[in-house]
Amino acid sequence: MNKHGAGRPSGLCGQGKDAASYHVLSFLLGAALPTALLFYLASDRLGEGLSSISPSSWGSSRTPTTQQLAGATDHTAPTSPTSQGQESEFAELAELLPRVATDDDRTVILTSVNEAFARPDSLLGLFRESFRAGEGTEHLLDHVLVVAVDAMAFVHCKAVHPHCYRLEVDSATYLSSESSFLSAAYVELVWAKLSLQQRVLELGYNFLFTDVDVVWLRNPFRHISVYPDMTTSSDIFHGDANSLDNWPNTGFYYVKATNRTVEMLRRWRAARRRFPPNHEQAIFNQIKHELAADLGVRIQFLDTARSPASAGSSTVTWARVHHARQLLLRAR
């Protein structure tokens, strides 16, 4: 995926933290795993971040005001009927989610892996370690559900992580090896994750999906507003977080569980037939205007305007592994 670096310095830690950030990044880069991008987030939305909804879970003392909550409609849990087929397709998911999600706002962090990404000394281990090494992120690891798309990925996951889910993917494509961007296996995997995400919303749980190659250096929930139905990272950002002219990057996005977001996921998946053989990110970019017009879905884009090399390590909230090397060089 084409990624762009981003945002104003977050101010989440002072310059005295640079040394600590250097050591964190030194450890993370020991795996030397491929991918791209750094995200830099601004501090101007801290007062209305998702952390204000769930202080006990996300480590904030803020609580939402009546005016904040009054600005959002249809924020109740979805009431979509559950079919027997859905229960069968996603067996045990309803029992697993309460053990993973936060108690107060029913939010779960989702990531997905195949065997190549889950085996020892691969991306899953690096992903998990970033929560422990990051600033104020270790407690978030308790709320991560790792979705395994093949049998060996599930075995590897269970060996290191308490919350794993085996997603059966109906595909003739071999899914266990590393998948290059837009390969047949890659496309199957990204569409499979959407079906699971729709079911998570139907069960009344908010989710933040993150690619497994994203390392968490600081708490990103502090930068997610309470107002939108969906908050997504960007491939192209034009300066206005609420503008649909921005291009989404679906390697990192948050969705609230409402009736309209369930319908949004349903239409998103259905649009695959309209735009074959494209992947889910490109198709979402094609249909975002109609989703907003037809459903009233509010989409907000995270500012990704600055390049990876343009900020110091004290500004980074999360990063993809490969370009973290640039950050390490600046920290020195």
Through-space gap between termini: 29 Å
Strand coverage percent: 15-25%
Q: Kindly provide the name of the CATH class.
A: Alpha Beta
Number of domains: 1
Q: What proportion of the residues is helical, as a percent range?
A: 25-40%
Q: Please give the count of helices.
A: 12
Low-confidence stretches: 1-17, 31-73, 305-313, 323-332
The general outline is: globular
Q: Which structural class is indicated by helix and strand composition?
A: alpha/beta
Could you give the count of β-strands?
Answer: 10
Task: Tell me, rounded to a whole number, the average pLDDT.
Answer: 73
Question: What is the correct CATH architecture?
Answer: Alpha-Beta Complex
Widest sheet: strand ordering = 4-3-2-5-8-7-9
CATH superfamily annotation? Spore Coat Polysaccharide Biosynthesis Protein SpsA, Chain A
Q: Mind summarizing the main beta sheet? A: 7 strands, mixed
Radius of gyration: 19 Å
CATH-derived topology = Spore Coat Polysaccharide Biosynthesis Protein SpsA, Chain A
Brief write-up:
Helix 9 runs antiparallel to helix 10. This protein is 34% helix and 15% strand. The protein contains twelve helices and ten strands.
